[in-house]
Specification:
The protein is an alpha+beta fold and about 220 residues long. The chain folds into two domains: about 55-135, wza like fold; about 140-215, Roll (Outer membrane lipoprotein wza fold like), CATH 3.10.560.10. It is about 25% helix and about 25% strand. It contains five helices and ten strands. It has helices at about 1-25, 45-55, 110-120, 160-165, 190-195; strands at about 65-70, 85, 95, 100-105, 130-135, 140-145, 150, 175-180, 185-190, 210-215. It has a five-stranded mixed sheet. The chain has a three-stranded antiparallel sheet with strand order 2-1-5. The longest helix has 23 residues, at about 1-25. The termini are far apart.
């Protein structure tokens, strides 16, 4: 009788221990945790995205094209194929009819066109379509490349992309690229390493200069 009692207690304890262990095993430290709070702060922008975003922002000395359009009845109409050119002054502004000076430097085309639209509507127009584009946005590639000279900046560009846009390196070129920023900062880039590792392929911005020197035999 004592044996049966002890056996019953042992079995009950084993079952209870198994339930505890099973319950602990349902959650592991590797299980992802999801935040369902709609007011939670957004993830910060990565350095790569920040750099790419900075490349699209206007700078003093560049020319922007502002095209606006309204329908004949005040309703939005098609945007004109051409617009008016405005040079960004040293203080970073452009001067527009009616509204005067507006900050352009440091803004992307979409940010600037939104600002312009908000200043014109509804004070001067009921409806307005504003389109902002940039021209004369170039970087420079010199030295031992097939086609040295200015290259039009058409969006995200890296050192290897810029060299290839200039016809690639010549036979006599060093594979060390000197990248000079618009603020005078000089950076040495290993072309071969940049080709094999994108983290070493630095971005190129409008106004930057790339110089490829000749090898010394």
């Amino acid at each position: 009788m004592n044996f049966l009692l002890r056996l019953s207690v042992f079995v009950s304890a084993a079952v209870f221990t198994g339930m505890i262990l099973s319950g602990c095993g349902t959650t592991t430290k590797d299980e992802p945790v999801f935040n369902d709070n709609p007011n939670a702060p957004a993830m910060s922008e990565s350095p790569t995205n920040s750099t790419q975003s900075a490349a699209a922002r206007f700078r003093p000395g560049e020319t922007v094209v502002v095209a606006t359009s309204t329908g004949s009845d005040g309703a939005p109409g098609p945007v004109a194929a051409t617009g008016q050119n405005f040079l960004i002054a040293d203080d970073g502004t452009i001067s527009l009819p009616f509204i005067g000076k507006i900050q352009a430097a440091g803004k992307t085309p979409s940010e600037l066109q939104d600002d312009i639209n908000n200043l014109y509507v509804p004070q001067y127009y009921v409806h307005l379509i504003t389109t902002v584009t940039g021209i004369y946005r170039v970087y420079y590639v010199g030295g031992e490349v097939t086609h040295p000279g200015p290259e039009v900046y058409n969006g995200q560009t890296t050192v290897t992309m810029a060299i290839q846009a200039a016809g690639d390196l010549t036979t006599f070129a060093k594979h060390t690229i000197w990248l000079t920023r618009a603020d005078g900062t000089r950076i040495e880039v290993d072309y071969d390493a940049a080709l094999s590792d994108s983290s070493k392929d630095l971005p190129v911005f409008p106004g930057d200069k790339l110089e490829v020197h000749r090898r010394i035999f």
